[in-house]
Amino acid sequence: MNYILKMSLRNLARNKRRSALSAIAIAIGTALLLFMSATIRGEMRGALDLTINLRTGHLQIHAEDYKDENMSLKREDMIEGPLEISGQIEEIAQVKAASPRLNISGIVAFKNETIGVQILGIDPPSATNSMYIEGMVAGEYFSTDDHEGVLIGLPLAESLDINPGDTIDLIINTSEGDTDEQRFTVRGIYTTDTPAYDKSTIFMPLEKAQTISRTDNYASMIYILLHDMDDTAAVKDAIQAPGYIVEDWVELNQLIVIVEQLSNAMMFFFNLMVLGVTSTVIMNTLLMAVYERTREMGILGALGMKAKQVKALFLTEATLLAIGGVLIGLAIGVPLVLYYAQVGFFLGDMGISANSSFMFGNSIYPYPTVGDAISVSVAALLITMLSGYYPASQAAKLEPVDALHSNN
Amino acid sequence: MEIAKLTDITRVYTIGEVETHALRGVDLSIGEGEFTTLVGPSGSGKTTLLQLIGCLDKPTSGKVFINNEEATGMNRNQRADLRKGTIGFIFQFFALVPTLTAYENVELPLLLIGKKNNHKARVMELLDAVGLVDWAEHRPDQMSGGQQQRVAVARALASEPLLILADEPTANLDTENGEQVMEIMKKLNEETGTTFVFATHDPRVIKYAKRVITLEDGLIIEDKNSGK
Ligand SMILES: Nc1ncnc2c1ncn2[C@@H]1O[C@H](COP(=O)(O)OP(=O)(O)O)[C@@H](O)[C@H]1O
Ligand SMILES: [Mg+2]
């Protein structure tokens, strides 16, 4: 074995507790960063996933000036004959499901309370609704020709104390610019585990929604889900919808894409902070070691050890600490992240409005990637080795004669 | 043949405002095969002089020649190269690397000067010369002071230097161990022709020397050949 490596190992063993604590500092830093990066990535993916599934779809067809948040019912902002268009699109092999959706703003009145909601007209049998069907917690889903039934979200049901079978009054905007009020029966209660969305979204069969809002044979958009989101570009090219525009999930989720970039930048600074603390610990440990071993460095110098060998000795010690620390960090961090990636951690309602471009579920599922694990490990390794550089240079600067005079 | 030659050496230590004139003009020549001691009271400049001969330090003025090569103008690394295989050191305190065994301590100078081939025979021969073959695998903290200093002697000899400089090698040893170390050094001097220069103020040590140089206040006041 190389004698520098051997001496470094023995030097680390000299003060086992101090070496162990330093390695643990690196390990905690590494594990923390691993966890943070997976959490942020999971959060971003979760938000994107939810937004795609609940709001934008992988692809969407709509009129040129249509804007989701306006819930405009003007003919020029809408799609005519949407069921034919969605039927054609479902012929495309990569498409999982395509279906018209009609967005209407309205107000729920129940007993003495009124709450502003979004009424979403959906085609009940479409596979695009599978998330709501799977999320039914009480009562039953509705059918195409149900003209009196609606589905409401769990938080709304809880806050107004509504049960399946109860009736609610809906005041609904119409394309004629006035409102219509009708009584509906709550057929069922759903949850998507996205409190902001569930609180303010009421589902109604498309036909009935068109009738009540006076938009027969029109929809706000065609909502399209794919089997594999990697096919987005190909399917987008294949869609024929003259007079309308097709947008993909990237275009529809600009904000999330930007926020993701922002959070990557923030993660970078967070990394720097954590690694800065870690590197201070390492630097301190090694400076103490240099100080304690000043006299020994003098003896080694007198025996023929050169400045660069002295430097190599301390850098090797830093590197060994770094490797040990990162390995322990991975040993702690990877199982932890994998565990939470399975079970997630519960956050509850984060109070973000359903109309924001951001959808947050009530749980975060960390999403670990090999790439993140590698970059976190490499960063921790590099920073630790770098923080060994200053103490190592200090040691290398010692003149043997001065070192021999030292009291240490 | 001259191994070390020093001409008109001064060494001034400056700490803050205070200047200490440790050496005030020393001329000295050390010949091959000498067994020489530097004596003088504490603070007379023995250690300083040894460090200058050993090229660990640079004089304030004057010149140092090792094997006719001028060391005075050299930088740290050049001096290290000059020392390699030429000069060995024995110190008074804590001279062994505490994490290494006796064997590894003796082997270290060989590794440091980049000798790649098998050192085992050489190291064991040296340990044998200082009577510590059985202690090869022991660490310094498992050995007595005398044993440690004998390992240090073996280590100083490892790279077959022409000159060994020892600074009060027996100061921390009892009489028996001190004499044992001196006997070993004397024997190695006679058998291998290695030159020894050692500082001491221990009369029991002085009696081993062939040449006794007396320092006082940074000057050589006596340079006496005992004729042994
Ligand atoms: N590194 C140093 N800095 C300042 N003064 C020193 C240093 N080394 C030695 N001295 C001073 O130089 C003088 C000679 O010291 P030294 O060579 O150690 O003498 P000796 O070894 O004979 O006891 C003393 O006065 C000592 O205090
Ligand atoms: Mg001294």
Give your account of this protein's structure:
Chain B: One of its GO terms (cellular component) is membrane protein complex. Chain B: Residues 4-228 form the ABC transporter domain. Chain B: It comes from Candidatus Desulfolinea nitratireducens. Chain B: Belongs to the ABC transporter superfamily. Chain A is α+β, with helices and mostly antiparallel strands. Helices cover 54% and strands 20% of the residues of chain A. Chain A has two domains: 3-52 and 256-404, no CATH class; 64-243, no CATH class. In chain A, strand 3 (95-110) and strand 4 form a beta hairpin. In chain A, helix 2 (16-56) runs antiparallel to helix 10 (254-292). Chain A is elongated. Chain B has one domain (2-225): P-loop containing nucleotide triphosphate hydrolases (Rossmann fold, 3-Layer(aba) Sandwich), CATH 3.40.50. Helices cover 32% and strands 30% of the residues of chain B. Chain B is built from seven helices and ten strands. In chain B, helix 3 (102-112) packs across helix 4 (120-129), helix 4 (120-129) crosses helix 5 (145-158) and helix 5 (145-158) runs parallel beside helix 6 (175-192). The radius of gyration of chain B is 17 Å and the shape is globular. The model of chain B has no long low-confidence stretch (mean pLDDT 90). The interface between A and B is medium-sized, with 23 and 26 residues. The complex binds adenosine-5'-diphosphate and magnesium ion.
